[in-house]
Design a protein that fits this description.
This protein is mainly alpha-helical and 410 residues long. Helix content is 73%, strand content 4%.
Length: 410
Amino acid sequence: MITQTWAIVWDTFRELRSRRLWWLTLGLSLLVVGVFGAIGLGERGLTFLWWELETPFLNKQTVGVRDFYTNIFVQFGVAWWLGWLGLILALMSTASIVPDMVSAGSIELVLSKPIGRWRLLLTKYAGALGFVGVQVLVFAAASILVIGVRGGVWLPGLLIAVPLVVGVFSMLYCVCVLTGLLTRSTLAALVITALFWGFVSLLSTAYTGTEFFREVNALNLESQGRRVERLRAQRAALEESQAPGADGDGPAGQAQLPEETGERWDLGPGEAERLAERLREAEAELARVEENRRLIGRVEWWLRASITALPKTGRAIEMMTGWLESEAQVAQREQRQSEGQDLVGAFDPNRGRPQSPEEEAEERRRERVIEARVVSARREQSAWWVLGTSGAFNAAVLLVACWRFGRRDF
């Protein structure tokens, strides 16, 4: 049985290797690695081959060589090449395996072999995964070699990208196998898989949007809550100053605000009414922000329930890039997040557009705070939820494909 299985896997691999897409994908992977190798980090800035671009913020004094090359590999090699372009080429290379197998004239020869249908289909599936695994292994090994020679650091941990990328590919390829089995068309399998991938990505993007709005609303809620507390403290100080026996001469006196404000407040005519009006507006705004929080929570729950049942390719790629980050990069990201905690009070929903350079800089800092919080929240999501539910979807689709292949008359 092992010999039969291995023979089918090897036959599938040889079939894929004989196609031009194999060499195209391999050549593009090596080209990307070559571009990585051409980029370097000099004493004064970035280098490309024999040219040097002076960048005071990016050189050997400001960034470590290990972090520099790891970041390039993670952000471009994994997130863009392996996570998107490489997956597209892999799907194009392997989409025809099942339609060609079940086409008229081929399926009769295949079924004449003394091997079960389920094992036959799963073996073909494993052969396609092996094809992709070899491509990713070549890319990762070449990247390690180039980074070691060019940067003087050896990063064997980059090999973890091989099983992770193969796993992400498997989440999509199972759909391609099922549609190819049902339609017997390579083009239909590719189109349906691409549409499914787009739908999943769109759903994931919507969920990411709700996470962003959740963090923005949370900061607004904290800011508005502090504003209401401050106005209530001012009202209490005003009432105390106007009480019989209090210091000052009634409304014409002065009330000491709470210590955290550090201000003096002149009590002019009609100030009590204006303060009460501001307090009512602040409480109404706080109620509105609280209602937004509940609405965002409901939308987020439904989106999370929807994507839980589907493969999370984007989340898996993000999780993979997080695992490949060095400890220094993680510490830098967490420090950026912690430095922004004191900006919570700046998230005022009544705040206008920044006008001065200082306000514009503060606005950019607030945006970085939100981004850091969202990224941190996403990377704290359980790997069992991202990979476990995606694996369950993968297994369920493969089970349906095997059941259909086992019962279908050809």
